[in-house]
Here is the input.
Amino acid sequence: MAVTGQPREAVPLRALRYAFGVFLVAAGLFLIIVVVTIVDPGGGLSGIWAGKERAFHDLLRHQVLIAAGFACLSAAMLTAAAGWWRRRRWSRWLGVAIIAADLAGNLVTLRSDAASAALGIGIDAAILTWLLLPVTARVFGRPRPAEHPG
Here is the structure.
């Protein structure tokens, strides 16, 4: 069902929009699990770090700071998802900020994990390009005017 006042969008663009919305929700929920494993390192969810034990131990050096940062990122992603499904203009810009931050992180890790970082950089660049396209911006339309009591 189309949102009133919003332009119709092509099926491939709608599929991309839905996929990004699902990504925001899934990543936000996954980050909650990450926070739980950092706060409770020996808990039942710690298995998600299998194969990345060194990275996990590096995160634990600054346990409180890292957990707080991931919790904030989770809140940002879930907030962006809530606005994304309602086609709010601010959610698109929050999505741009989240992906830009991930791109910066991938650039930092390029020296230590070149293959993974290069893949992340390519994916982030593609997502940022799509988010910044005028055709994507049009789907989010203009902000709704404030309602005035009658």
